[in-house]
Design brief:
Blueprint lengths: L1 E9 L6 H4 L10 H4 L11 H4 L5 E5 L11 H8 L2 E6 L4 H9 L4 E3 L1 H6 L5 E5 L5 E3 L2 E3 L6 H9 L2 H11 L1
Parallel strand pairs: 1-2, 2-3, 3-4
Antiparallel strand pairs: 1-5, 5-6, 6-7
């Protein structure tokens, strides 16, 4: 599966889940409503840059650190973020992205090369990222997260598994 999208760059390091999605909104369960609180503690204007199904976030080191809340990843996916490419991620954040059906690949070179608004192509299966015609190979994702992504996230993956039994 390939993605064609525009880049949004969040170059800061150590961006934690508390600024991505503040705790006072944790009781919001509807992903469509949750997206209105995404980036609330970081820069709410970033929400205006998101285009449904047409965005890949490029982020700095240790992105998604802090609490293990799943709402940042869920709100990103509901906002049309197709993938997150980072220098590095907090482990739980990266897994929450996969569970939400949105790959999170480590690729520091792609992050260093990208500018806001760049045209991006990405192969979800391999993690190959093309930024303005330049190819960057990502670290390979293990087979189970790739399987979950292929199913569209954790909930559809579990449903498929249950239907097979």
């Amino acid at each position: 599966m390939n993605i064609h999208a525009k880049a949004i760059l969040i170059p800061d390091d150590n961006v934690d889940t508390d600024v991505l999605y503040p705790g006072k909104y944790l009781n919001v369960l509807d992903p469509q409503e949750a997206r209105t609180h995404l980036f609330e503690g970081l820069d709410p204007k970033l929400r205006d840059l998101l285009k449904d199904g047409d965005t890949v976030l490029f982020v700095g080191e240790n992105f998604g650190s802090g609490s293990s809340r799943e709402q940042p990843a869920t709100a990103m996916a509901a906002s049309g973020v197709r993938a997150v490419i980072g220098k590095s991620f907090a482990r739980i954040f990266a897994r929450n992205c996969v569970n939400a059906g949105m790959p999170a690949y480590r690729n520091a070179n792609a992050v260093l090369a990208v500018k806001n608004g760049d045209d991006i192509e990405m192969n979800i299966a391999t993690g190959l990222v093309t930024v303005s015609g330049q190819n960057f190979s990502s670290e390979q994702m293990p087979s189970l997260p790739r399987e979950i992504l292929a199913a569209g996230g954790m909930v559809p993956w579990v449903k498929r598994k249950l239907d097979k039994d």
